[in-house]
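Lab notebook: predicted structure, single chain.

Context: the supervisor wants predicted structures on file for every construct in the current expression panel, including those that have not yet been purified. This is the next one on the list. No modifications to the sequence; it matches the entry in the shared construct table.
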Amino acid sequence: MTGQPGWGTRALLVAWAALVLGSLLGGCAGGLPATGATGGRDWVTESDEPQARKRARTRLELAAGYFEQGQVTVALDEVKQAIQIDPTYAAAFNLRGLIYTQLRDLPLAEESFQQALRLDPRDGDTWHNLGWMYCQDARYPAAIDAFRRALDAPAYRSPARTWMAMGVCQARAGQADAGERSLLRAFELDPGHPVVLYNLALLLYQRGDAERARFFIRRLNNSEWANAESLWLGIKIENRLQNRVAADQLGEQLKRRFPGSREAGAYERGAFDE
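Prediction complete. Output recorded below exactly as produced.
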């Protein structure tokens, strides 16, 4: 694949990584929730944050930066130092779980997410990440349950990505109807997201609904996010609908913009059923 990244399921972790990291760190500069001795919830400011947490947060910010740059092992080392400084820092365990998920060490990823949830059981981001890890491991009922817990979490700020991930996971599990409903909900919340558009188009195409699939893939291919993968899916959809003019136009764009891609090669061979 050349040019922009693909929008298939392998792109999901990348697509939401920056958003996840932002939610891991975003609350640090503002109010920090704390439970008082009376059982009520007090709001403290950053100046009240313990020194150990401040030092751990600095390490976590470094880890997040390295992770976004693809320096995964360096990020893991920084996370380990953050945890050593403050073993009660749920966000550090959450990021450690993300890193282990990317490294395909799923047992350690699950252990990390579970520890994060023991420290902060209502964190929607951790439930989301745990759900995607379960989906990677084909543990689909556990994945769907975790995604629903994320959506039910108080003040959860990223429902679109969770509906998107749940839809992809349901499709993988053979639950096409449920997957379509979840992806459509993600589309309602974020109608321009390329991963949502691609996976909705792909699911509908696979279900034999090429007309509706064309609606979503055209939105993607008419945007700045069009790439070899989305153009190739658009070609296959137009070909199934016997719209040769549109298919040829997309094919010329694919060859011009992504000449060395696997998709361009498949187009040249006429391999529409690969």
